[in-house]
Amino acid sequence: QVQLVESGGDLVQPGGSLRLSCAASRSIFSIYIMAWYRQAPGKQRELVAIAHKDGITSYSDSVKGRFTISRVNAKNTVYRQMNNLRSEDTAVYYCYAGHGVWGQGTQVTVSS
Questions:
Q1: Which of 55, 36, 41 is nearest to 102 (CA)?
Q2: 32 burial type by CB count under 10 A (0-12 exposed, 13-18 middle, 19+ buried)
Q3: What are phi and psi of 88, to 5 degrees?
Q4: Contact 86/14 with Cβ under 8 angstroms?
Q5: Which has the closest alpha carbon to 45: 86, 101, 105?
Q6: How far is 10 from 79, CA to CA, in rounded Å?
Q7: Are 85 and 67 in contact (CB under 8 A)?
Q8: Per-residue confidence of the chain (112 residues) as pLDDT tens digits?
Q9: Beta pairing class for 106-110 and 11-12
């Protein structure tokens, strides 16, 4: 079973940018969907972005136009570029590879 490790979380000011990485322990070429979720304090985990195997991406309305998900199969890695961050983006961000496979999460805090 593939294992996922997220990195890149940090404290950033509103309007700033971050890039999160999700490194897989094996090839992700055959994994149909790679996704990013987030969970803010006191809230349920929510889907933020999906990158399909065929290159199609989709985003939640709350991040559309600000976040970009990309998967680099040659590096077994999925990235998410987050621009124009807002305080409401503060959350633990998780990578998901389907079939119940989650990363451990990385904390993103947006605050001045």
A1: 36
A2: exposed
A3: -75, -5
A4: yes
A5: 105
A6: 15
A7: no
A8: 899 999 999 999 999 999 999 999 999 999 999 999 999 999 999 999 999 999 899 999 999 999 999 999 899 999 999 999 999 999 999 999 999 999 999 999 999 9
A9: parallel
Q: How far apart are CA 4 and CA 57, in angstroms?
A: 20
Tokens 């990158």: give the residue: 51
Q: Which residues contact 97 (CB under 8 A, 6 or more apart)?
A: 2, 4, 24, 28, 31, 33, 34, 35
Burial class (CB in 10 A: 0-12, 13-18, 19+), 53: middle
**In this structure, what DSSP letter does residue 75 have?**
G
DSSP code of residue 26: S
Q: Which amino acid is at 24?
A: A
The partner residues of 59 in beta bridges, in order of sequence, read: 49
DSSP structural state of residue 102: B
